[in-house]
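Subject: design request, 423 residues
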């Protein structure tokens, strides 16, 4: 459990800037109509709520969110759920869509450009520090601790890093550090990742979290914008330049991860739920007796917009027709009418009719499950209506023809897929 959960003075001088413009194409059809940060997670929240909640819980009261790809549902969620910050209390919350502010034909060209195009807005608040965050990861972290390290070390940039088994780091940007965790090199998706000194089997992977003094970052963004060969990206351009010409320091996530008393001490929980398999697994993990992520932690709540809905309801009590749930999460406004749930997670407003069965299923809001349907190891996108008697997850070849089936056997089911079914 984090020792210091009170708002620190550094956080009050800081702006959190969340990069939330990415599609997340590896989530396949789940991001056809929404950006990855807007994807539902954990029964009530969206993925972006974790980064935003970390900022609020850390004491940061100035937040900006840069959006780009299919941002309507994300912007609506932010307006509904994150409009409680008040300018009269020196607080602010800005939604910053890609609005071609530099030229009429230029959207955000990269992660660094998404900040550069809004320099005037950032400077109008005059934050002393700025924390750059990715809006598409699931984790709990006290940014005040990272800010304190940044100030104490005198670094030009502090990079949040995750300790991972060395050969798993081939999918990340990897920090090569010395014995004091000064970053000496940044390698993007290396075939042979550099190890942490003295720990040959462990590497430091970038989390896409950066702390800067604001004036220094603005200078770096202006310099980068003047370079015609730049990709306008933090990981590809800004951070490598500082590593070469300044001082970059790694911040280990296990120093600032927030754990409740119910969470295991041996894991610093962080997930990139960027594939259908990873998304399904992270949601199903919440049905464990002691899940690796405690979403019930009142000391570090995950804030979100909550629909005003009635409680969940279970009806019928006959053999073979009994509304029941075992090791499952069921959100408000769900009605389990004579159906069964096992190791499943239901978002708001799901209706499950009699004699149906859900096993290891992640069911997004407003889905309808018909009578005698059987769904196993699947993700049902929002608003899917499963016809009576449909079986998913038992015939791999048939599933692959009808739905998006992953190599690990997880089926993603969307409304267009159901509409195309013929009987």
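Subject: RE: design request

Done. Sequence follows.
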């Amino acid at each position: 459990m984090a020792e210091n959960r009170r708002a620190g003075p550094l956080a009050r001088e800081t702006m959190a800037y969340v990069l939330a413009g990415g599609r997340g194409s590896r989530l396949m059809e789940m991001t056809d109509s929404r950006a990855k940060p807007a994807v539902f997670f954990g029964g009530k929240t969206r993925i972006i709520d974790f980064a935003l909640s970390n900022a609020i819980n850390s004491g940061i009261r100035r937040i900006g969110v840069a959006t780009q790809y299919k941002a309507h549902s994300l912007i609506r969620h932010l307006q509904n759920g994150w409009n409680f910050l008040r300018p009269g209390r020196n607080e602010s919350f800005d939604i910053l869509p890609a609005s071609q502010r530099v030229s009429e034909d230029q959207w955000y060209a990269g992660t660094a450009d998404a900040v550069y195009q809004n320099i005037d807005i950032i400077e109008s608040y005059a934050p002393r520090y700025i924390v750059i965050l990715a809006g598409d990861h699931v984790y709990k972290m006290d940014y005040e601790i990272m800010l304190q390290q940044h100030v104490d070390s005198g670094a030009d940039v502090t990079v949040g890093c995750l300790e991972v088994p060395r050969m798993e780091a081939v999918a990340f940007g990897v920090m090569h550090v010395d014995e004091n965790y000064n970053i000496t090199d940044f390698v993007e998706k290396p075939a042979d990742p550099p190890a942490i000194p003295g720990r040959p089997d462990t590497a430091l992977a970038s989390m896409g979290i950066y702390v800067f003094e604001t004036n220094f970052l603005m200078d770096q963004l202006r310099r980068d914008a003047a370079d015609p060969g730049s990709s306008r990206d933090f990981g590809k351009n800004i951070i490598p330049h500082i590593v070469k010409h300044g001082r970059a320091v790694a911040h280990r996530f296990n120093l600032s991860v927030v754990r409740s008393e119910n969470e295991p001490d041996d894991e610093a929980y962080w997930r990139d739920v960027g594939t259908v398999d990873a998304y399904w697994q992270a949601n199903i993990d919440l049905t464990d007796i002691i899940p690796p992520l405690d979403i019930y932690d009142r000391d570090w709540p995950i804030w979100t917009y909550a629909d005003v809905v009635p409680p969940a309801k279970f009806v019928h009590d006959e053999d073979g027709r009994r509304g029941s749930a075992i090791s499952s999460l069921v959100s408000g406004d769900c009605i389990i009418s004579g159906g069964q749930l096992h190791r499943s997670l239901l978002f708001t407003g799901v209706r499950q009719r009699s004699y149906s069965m859900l096993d290891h299923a992640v069911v997004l809001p407003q889905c309808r499950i018909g009578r005698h349907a059987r769904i196993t190891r699947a993700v049902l996108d929002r608003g899917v209506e499963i016809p009576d008697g449909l079986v998913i997850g038992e015939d791999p070849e048939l599933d692959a023809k009808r739905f998006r089936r992953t190599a690990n056997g997880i089926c993603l089911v969307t409304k267009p897929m159901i509409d195309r079914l013929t009987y």
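The mean pLDDT is 93.
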